[in-house]
Amino acid sequence: MGITVYRRTTQIAFILLVFLMPVLNIFRYDTATKELIIFGQVWSLGLKEAFYADHSMRAAGHVALQFFLKAILPWIVFLAIFPLLGFLTGRFFCGWFCPEGTLFELADNLTLKLLGRRSLFNKRPNDPEVSGERELLYIVIALMSMAVLPLIGGVALTGYLVAPKTIWAQIMSWDFTFGVKAGIIGVSIYMLVTSILVRHSLCKYICAAGLMQMLFGWVSPVSLRVRMDLSRADECTNCRGCEKACFMNVLPRMNKRDISCVNCGACVAACNKELGAGKGLFHFQSGEKKTVTECENMSDNALSEHCKKTAIHLRT
Ligand code: SF4
Ligand code: SF4
Predict the structure, then answer these.
(1) Are residues 286 and 233 in the same domain?
(2) What ligand is nearest to the CA atom of residue 228?
(3) Mean pLDDT, to the nearest integer, of 194-213?
(4) Model confidence at 132, in pLDDT bands (50, 70, 90)?
(5) Residue nearest to atom 6 of ligand 2 (CA)
(6) How many independent structural domains does the chain possess?
(7) What is the whole-number distance in angstroms between the Cα of residue 70 and the centre of ligand 1?
(8) What pTM was computed for the model?
(9) Which of 30, 134, 135, 205, CA to CA, is 20 to 30 A from 22?
(10) Of 171, 205, 239, which residue is a domain's last?
(11) 8 Cβ partners below 8 Å, 6+ apart?
(12) For residue 271, how far is its CA from the centre of ligand 2 (angstroms)?
């Protein structure tokens, strides 16, 4: 199985997980009862009323400990997730799991099929060529996606604040409370606008999770990166498949640390397709190790003439 199949699988699985968490009571906040539910249990400080009446040092210590364990520690763990992910894996989460990233990729691909470019606004040099066949089919898919996906997202995400069975009952009776209506419509509009107009700019400049991974991945000496094996650069056919595969508009052959790279591996797959399975010039690696980033700094023997020309050509 190719890298693209693995990636689509993780993306779909994560979307299902996000959608099902409130339904299965794995995680949701019920605004009606004002209860946080985690794995079917109401999350509370676990303090009985008697403790608040007890002013002894022992009771105060117990309250402080419970508060730390049940309120502060979970927040610390939660807030540390994305910096830690970034430090170890760069923006791997963005490329392999993020539901928004998946939605934006779908929008890119449909736009490409319909307009011959990924963006609504302009054609980029790395936009792949498309055949223009089955246009009608893609128009239907695009219209259905625009109508259905934001609504499904709206219903699913509103479930994090309103009990899913309450939402379902309101859908069945077509009689909505203001909160449910606002949740579904608000999320739907957000999804529609971001997937049509904003797309990956949101990942680059707005998303807090993306920015955390970007920052910590950038400074980390060990974070996961996609690297080109420059010692084999003379095997490059200059097909530009790697550049065309990159929906983040990175130039993978530049081999530099690019904060936009989401470690999706699309360039890895594209080069494997061009040069043969397992023979592509890109690979994932942790940290810099001994890869070459500055052609000029290398000794004459370290790189072939072709490699030097390629690297210099790519940089200009
Ligand atoms: S450079 Fe490669 S791994 Fe990084 S975003 Fe582009 S295609 Fe994905
Ligand atoms: S996909 Fe591979 S062979 Fe084609 S341009 Fe990129 S590095 Fe060269």
Answers:
(1) yes
(2) 2
(3) 95
(4) confident
(5) 242
(6) 2
(7) 39
(8) 0.86
(9) 205
(10) 205
(11) none
(12) 5
Q: Are 262 and 94 in contact (CB under 8 A)?
A: yes
Structure tokens at 187: 């999320």
Structure tokens at 248: 């983040």
Nearest CA to ligand 2 atom 7: 236
Any ligand 1 atom below 6 A from CB of 246: yes
- Asked whether 83 and 216 are in contact (CB, 8 A), the reply is yes
Domain coverage including residue 274: 223-315
Asked if 166 and 96 sit in the same domain, the reply is yes
List all residues whose CB is within 6 A of at least one atom of ligand 2.
236-242, 253, 270-271, 274-275, 281
pLDDT of residue 58: 84
pLDDT at residue 56 above 90?
no
Residue 54 lies in a domain: no
Same domain, 38 and 136: yes
Q: Has residue 67 been placed in a domain?
A: no
**165 lies in some domain:** yes
Q: Is 198 left (phi over 0), alpha (psi -120 to 50) or beta?
A: alpha
Residue 306 has a pLDDT of 40
**Are 274 and 188 within one domain?**
no
* Residues 231-243, mean pLDDT to the nearest whole number: 96
pLDDT at 64 over 90: no
Averaged pLDDT for residues 72-92: 94
304 pLDDT more than 80: no
Confidence of residue 247 (pLDDT cuts 50, 70, 90): very high
Ligand 1, atom 2, residue with closest C-alpha: 267
Check whether residue 199 and residue 249 sit in a common domain: no
Q: Which residues of 75-107 are buried (b: 16+ CB within 10 A; e: fewer)?
A: eeeeeeebbebbbbbbbbbbbbbbbbbbbbbbb
